[in-house]
TrEMBL record:
Top-rank lineage group of the source organism: Bacteria
Protein name per Swiss-Prot or TrEMBL: Uncharacterized protein
Amino acid sequence: MIKRFTIVFLCLITFCFPILASSIPNLHSEGAILIEPTTNTVLYSKNGRSTFYPASTTKILTALLLIEDLDLEAPITKTIASINNTPIDSSHIGLQVGDRYTALDGLYGILLGSDNFISYDMSLKAAGSMEAFVDKMNQKAKALGATSSHFVNPHGYHSPMHYTTPYDLSQIARGAFSNPLLLQIAGTPLYNFVVQNTGTTISLKHTAALLDTSSPLYNNHVIGVKTGFHDAAKRVLVAKAHFDNIDLIGVVMHTDAPYQFEDMNTLFEYGQTNFSLVQTENFRPYIANHSYSPWAKPYIETALSKAWITQTTRNYTDFITKRELIHLLKSSLPAAYRLILDECITYKEDSIYAENLPATRQQLEATLLHLFNTLALPPREIFTQKKSCLSSAPTPSQEVFLYTLTDTQSMGKPEMSSSPDDYLTYEEAIAIATKISTLVQCYDQSKLVDNEYPYSLPILNFY
């Protein structure tokens, strides 16, 4: 006796998932990156490996070397050499040739006042020659993991050969901000710089609005920051923020004011909302990803527990490609059925490119239709008021029936329209994979009978 089975095909074209809880940052900056420094995990990247000019954010690398090489009480003098070898239009705090100050105050002049002449004089003091100091900069950068960068001066004044990437700059910042003194200085909003030979003080105010309590861009979580600017680099910003659940380092490059500060705040909000630094039972740190919508949590937990997916920093509300979708569905199926989905990926002409584009709801429906037809499920139809994303109405010869879910109110979101060409998100695909996995398991175990009413199946209850 041949058993008959009923399978339900979920038409996503008319199913509406809840509003995205964790949107991916939409930044003005052409290059950006966000990392968690303890694990050195990249949480977000936009052109992260592309080359940009660092401008005065170069000075965090300079300051790190100066802290390592100089006595903080060592006397420094503004020299005529700095005037002759530093472009005259460089930023400065107003020192005159012959003015003396301590190395510690010089660090504040570099990181708060962004003084290029102080950068020159202190680098010369530390290494004996500018060539030697620049060599140390490049060696240190590579040691910190910045392997696609090259520096030719200690202050960041523009040169075509003075460049870095958002990723490299994040690695330099990770090393620099791990130094407690450098982090303290870079997080100081105001400082009184003492000119020792005159006994006068120069009031320094940090150039970053993130530290200015009177600014609408102020961020009380920021504990270290360095700005940068020249015409070719545009606005550049490097910052570190501390939250109860995670520390973050952000880099934004090549944008206009005040977007460097807005983008950094956007990155930090994204990071602390979607990720946490936690520990395993063996006290090993790892990043917990919370970037899914509330409704998706049980599906993602199931997928992780069954190893269909791995721990990742990818945003679950991002779009999934067709290739990734097929891999996910295959992972969720019993081994005997995985080969069925291999036919959904071809390697002809431009398909390799096409399979790496975001998957649409129509492509998902076609993929599941292929799966169900291959399993030789008997035909059955349920007519609803809404239409499938199939190009024509189903016929009795199709060995699948369509079931459209309409109650989205109980998931906490008003119903929204969608179309066959709408892209599928990672979390939506995981939810569907979970349902299909359970459904196929029931089919495999002969638990579905032909006359069973589909609405009674708890595995189909999305809401």
